[in-house]
Design brief:
The protein has six helices and 41 strands. With about 800 residues, the protein is mainly beta.
Length: about 800
């Protein structure tokens, strides 16, 4: 911890050194310059004022004191960030366009670029670099999120936190713990953190109860479940520092779907010779069989493991650092989360009800299992080395190189296409290397600072590219990313920066490989000919310190994207769908970020506003999930608002601490409407110009956390209360949901969106004649997945030592 602090202090002193030298030369003849020097060196709170990067820092208190469910929620509070459906969209980018790093090593798995989560108690701070990135940062079109974890303490200590809703407002329980200590007098230290969270996500739990009591607390899988762990070992003293970090996670997702909600007795056809479709009864009847549909929907068990070994050495004006890492991921989607696919091949095929029948309902599953199984694993090895030289006058030079090696495997069965003469199995196994090298120069000259950099990257689909259903040569793709920024101190309290950067991002491995040829539109075919997507980004920012405790920042950005992954039909003239991943998406995003910060001892308040426009040809790499399953679908070729195009975002984040007596965390967010696509009732939509042409309503969300520290325990015991969505705002979160494997509702036709288009009401509905009288109508569903999560009130208890 001491070494890290000294390294950061050295970097800060070097950035201000040139300004201090110039002020020293002017001190004698012009006494008033001495007063200016004092403001620059002592009172300035601007972080690295000579940098061209846009950096938003998140403190440890934000992760542990604010009313948040997971660590990524703290990042979602930053200006320019839109959090939706569990993904972070930074400055209009897709969810996978943000790179997450620890000690300079990526935390994403290679199949779909999903990052491992860290326990909140393990995080010291995080930096979101969203604009003007130096050449050291690369690989993410939207930027880089860099985590720093807590170092072992100087003496034994730890913390324990518990939150529970007590089944009053939903079911939520979270336990977090941290313990650390020096290991004798050897200079070694260790700190371990863990977190367990069980959450019903505000959704009905219709599955068979698997809860059991542990110390009087009911435990069991819920809709969302995660177990996180982190261990850090450090060795050495300043100026040497080395560490080993191991992070592990397991997340079990048991999704709710109203189509899989029947719980009773069902029959496939009660009248021989007169097929009326499946039947349902809440009570047992002769010839009916017991069926709890929710138990027959698949769940996902995702497990991760990351190990990182890093070392730093500071010698005078030079700094050397190196790191090596290994990442392993294994995810299984199956009936019970186990690696057993027999139900998808030998089990009963799912049967939905019959349309326009008084006896059956086409919305619900009456029998069988969800016909889908997937197992995907990946292993990635990383290595990097960096060198930095800091001159006395503030000039810096940095250079580095790194490499990675990915090995990915996938086995996927989709039995919903049985009987159509299509490929039911998707399988691949591939491995490939990659690498990068960069150089970065900061040049200080008479009050003007130039930040110049160049980054080169290499990417290849590997030797398996020639063995795919759409083969490619698999040649190595080389790319260069220039970076240029100018920083100009307008006054002792104001800094203006402008930057131009070019970024490339390699496609996730899952988009590259495939063994199928005859498919539906649900899952496009992998394409090994894909190349890295590119964004050209411009930024201008003004940072100003209003006083010792007040500061503000205003930023304008414009990002131009091309070559991103989208789906196009490979054989449009054959009349049979051949959806293929292509570098076919283009778009742009632009906006303004504004923040006002007050930071005083015991109080921190930040007000932020973001104006954002995010346009592109398609929001999902797979394309629109509605339409004919087998025939080619029309592709959008014009730009339209993307799913996360939120024009206006206003946030207030407040943290108050009164010594060892109490603390308050408060978050208020107000956002303008998200876009959605209108649909016509029971028609295949060929008018792609209507994509995301309408908007949902404004939404507001306020949460608070109040903690009290009883005086007799010297601040070591915590009791408190948290309320999420305090005013119980039930705004629309989205307009529709994918209905797979239903053959018609929300698959061929987007009934939910058509219902909203015709009636203006949310909650979802499907078109049917439930009485069989020849007069079809909308049948409302009231799907809770389409609304914001309801209010959740939780008790908080904690202990530290």
């Amino acid at each position: 911890m001491v070494a890290t602090a000294l390294i950061q202090l050295l970097a800060l002193l070097s950035t201000a050194d040139s300004l201090a030298v110039r002020a020293d030369t002017a001190r004698a003849p012009v006494p008033r310059v001495v007063r200016t020097l004092d403001e620059i060196v002592v009172r300035s709170r601007l972080r690295d004022p000579l940098s061209s990067q846009s950096i938003r820092s998140v403190s440890r208190e934000a992760f542990t004191r604010l009313p948040l469910d997971r660590a990524s929620d703290a990042v979602a509070l930053q200006p320019g960030v839109v959090g939706r459906a569990g993904e972070l969209h930074v400055r209009g980018g897709r969810g996978g366009d943000l790179r997450v790093m620890l000690a300079g090593i990526p935390l994403e798995e290679a199949v779909r670029d999903r990052a491992i989560e860290l326990p909140a108690l393990a995080i010291e701070s995080a930096d979101l670099v969203s604009g003007g990135l130096d050449a050291r940062a690369g690989g993410g079109l939207s930027g880089v999120l860099e985590y720093r974890t807590l170092d072992p303490p100087a003496r034994p200590g730890g913390a324990l936190q518990w939150q529970t809703s007590g089944a009053v407002t939903g079911r939520f329980d979270r336990i977090g713990a941290r313990a650390g200590a020096p290991l004798g007098h050897s200079g070694l230290g260790a700190v371990a953190s863990a977190e367990v969270a069980l959450d019903d996500m505000g959704l009905p739990d219709l599955r068979t109860d698997n809860r059991r009591s542990v110390l009087g607390i009911p435990m069991g899988w819920r809709a969302g479940n995660r177990t996180l762990g982190h261990l850090k070992l450090t060795a050495g003293h300043v100026p040497r520092h080395a560490g080993l970090e191991i992070a592990a996670s397991r997340e079990v997702s048991r999704p709710f779907d109203p189509m899989w909600s029947l719980d009773g007795w069902t029959t496939l056809d009660v009248t021989p010779g007169l097929p009326r479709g499946p039947g349902f009864s809440p009570t047992e009847l002769p010839g009916y069989e017991r069926y709890r549909a929710a138990d027959h929907k698949t769940i996902t068990d995702d497990r991760r493991l990351v190990a990182i070994l890093s070392a730093d050495r500071v010698a005078g004006e030079r700094r050397l650092s190196a790191a090596a890492g290994w990442s392993h991921a294994r995810s299984i989607t199956s009936l019970d989360g186990r690696d057993d696919e027999r139900y998808a091949t030998d089990g009963p095929f799912v049967v939905f009800g019959r349309a326009n029948s008084a006896f059956s309902d086409p919305f619900y599953a009456y029998w069988g299992d969800e016909p889908f199984f997937q197992r995907r694993t990946s292993d990635s090895w990383f290595a990097r080395a960096d060198y930095e030289h800091i001159a006395p006058r503030g000039t810096r030079f940095a250079a580095g190189a790194g490499g990675r090696y990915d090995a990915v495997r996938l086995h996927e069965l989709d039995s919903s296409v049985r009987g159509f003469g299509l490929d039911t199995l998707r399988s691949y196994e591939a491995y490939a290397p990659g690498g990068y090298a960069y150089g970065q120069l900061r040049w200080v000259f008479e009050g003007l600072v130039a930040n110049l950099g160049l980054r080169g990257e290499a990417f290849t689909a590997g030797p398996q590219a020639e063995r795919q259903s759409f083969p490619s040569a698999g040649h190595t793709q080389f790319s260069l990313s220039p970076r240029a920024g100018v920083t100009y101190p307008i006054s002792v309290r104001s800094v203006f920066t402008a930057s131009y950067i070019r970024l490339q991002q390699d496609p996730a491995r899952d988009f590259l490989y495939d063994n199928r040829t005859y498919v539906t539109n649900r899952q496009p075919i992998g394409n090994p000919a894909l190349v890295p997507a590119t964004v050209v980004a411009y930024q201008a920012a003004l940072r100003h310190e209003l006083s010792e405790h007040w500061s503000t920042q205003a930023t304008y950005f414009f990002d131009d994207l091309f070559g991103a992954i989208a789906t196009r039909d490979a054989s449009p003239g054959l009349g049979l769908a051949t959806p293929l991943y292509r570098n076919a998406d283009e778009g742009h995003s632009s906006g303004v970020e504004f923040s006002l910060l007050n930071d005083t001892p015991g109080a921190r308040a930040e007000w932020t506003y973001t104006f954002l426009e995010a346009y592109g040809t398609i929001s999902r790499e797979e394309g629109v999930p509605y339409g004919d399953r087998l025939a080619p679908r029309p592709s959008s070729i014009g730009e339209h608002p993307l799913d996360w195009d939120r024009r206006h975002s206003l946030r207030m984040v407040l943290q108050l601490t009164r010594g060892t007596r109490w603390s308050l965390g408060w978050i208020t967010e107000v956002g303008s409407p998200f876009p959605w696509t209108p649909r016509d009732r029971r028609q295949l939509d060929a008018d792609v110009s209507r994509e995301n042409s309408r908007r949902l309503g404004w939404d507001e969300n306020t949460s608070f956390s109040l903690r009290y520290f009883p005086p007799r325990f010297s601040g070591r015991v915590t009791i408190g209360l948290e309320a999420h969505n305090l005013f119980d705002s039930r705004s629309d979160a989205t307009a529709t949901a994918n209905g797979y494997p239903n053959p018609t509702i929300n698959t061929t036709y987007d009934d939910y969106a058509a219902y909203r288009t015709e009636t203006g009401r949310g909650g979802g509905a499907y078109w049917d004649d439930p009485n069989g009288d020849g007069n079809p109508q909308w049948v409302p569903v009231h799907d809770p997945r389409l609304f914001a999560r309801p209010r959740s009130v939780r008790m908080v208890a904690g202990l530290s030592w």
